[in-house]
Amino acid sequence: MKELICPKCGSTTHNLYENVCKNCFFKQFKLAELDPVISTQICARCGSKFERGQWTDTKHDTNTVLEKVESELLLHENADIIELGFEPQKLTPYQYIVNVYIQAEIYGMPLEEKLTTEVRVQRSVCDACSRIAAGYYEGIIQLRASNRNPTDDEKKKCDHLVRETLTRMEKKGDRLAFISNMSSSKEGTDYYIGSSGACRQICKIITSKLGGEHQESPSLFSQRDGKELYRVSYAVRLPKYVPGDILYFNNQVLQIKNCDKKAKCIDLQTGKKVIASIEDIEKAEFLGVYNDAKRAVLVAIEDNSIMVLDPTNYQTVTLKKPFFLTASEGEEIPVLKTEYGMIPIPEELKA
Ligand SMILES: [Zn+2]
Ligand SMILES: [Zn+2]
């Protein structure tokens, strides 16, 4: 084999590594470099990290510390890294010691190295947390219902949708997707939301799930650096009628089964399905709900009619036999007393 002379030390060798002999190569070779002290900034309230002038969501301090160490670690570009291990040790919330273990190969020769660094953690408050603390909001969602108060069930469903949407948007990177304040009354709930984009998304989701509509009305609240800043009110109006409501509409007695884009109803006389636009159904006359019904004794059942005892004056009344009737003679059935006469209604009002 050809003998070569190392230009650095003059010794003879069979192989040169980056133009010097093996000894000289390893004398100057540095597998990895890491500053003995590095620092990072973490939000004391939410755990977000501050890097390259920007706050980013992370929820786990130790991960943030390790990511920081990894990003600061310089590895020789020609080395093949076989294993890279990090061993964090939390001394205080402000100080970590991290050991880094590296197993590598360079020009087919195995190498091992252990480095240690101290990570100093600065605890400050991120942009989003300081805005939450200051009560910052860009939009108010006003949840209401048309000509009635929203039910507890609707309020609960909406609250769930609001929070679920905010969590999703925060994960997508909208750092202002938070509730900075809320207030609730019989008439509905107001949500003060950090991001107006999140408000719009929430309104879309609520009206697609529960029906109704929403309106935006912006109002200028300040000017900063020549930029006009708006706060937007989002009025969400849930539909006037909810599943189970019994209405008088186009000479029919209807019960609402579902009310979102359209009102889906059932004709309580014939059992026929009726679909009406929200606009039309809002003109219907409200007759009542199951809880408004009285119990009346079913006296007789014929082919097309039934006889019931009016629970207020005990007179016998003959009515058309409703399609849903399952009760037998002598049993009680729920009826609504209305200006259109006595109306038998179904027992189960599950929508
Ligand atoms: Zn040499
Ligand atoms: Zn924060």
UniProtKB/TrEMBL annotation:
It holds the Pfam family NMD3. Residues 6-238 form the Nmd3 N-terminal domain. One of its GO terms (molecular function) is ribosomal large subunit binding. InterPro entries: Nmd3, Nmd3_N. One of its GO terms (cellular component) is cytoplasm. It comes from the Archaea. This is NMD3 family protein. The lineage of its organism: Archaea, Methanobacteriati, Methanobacteriota, Stenosarchaea group, Methanomicrobia.
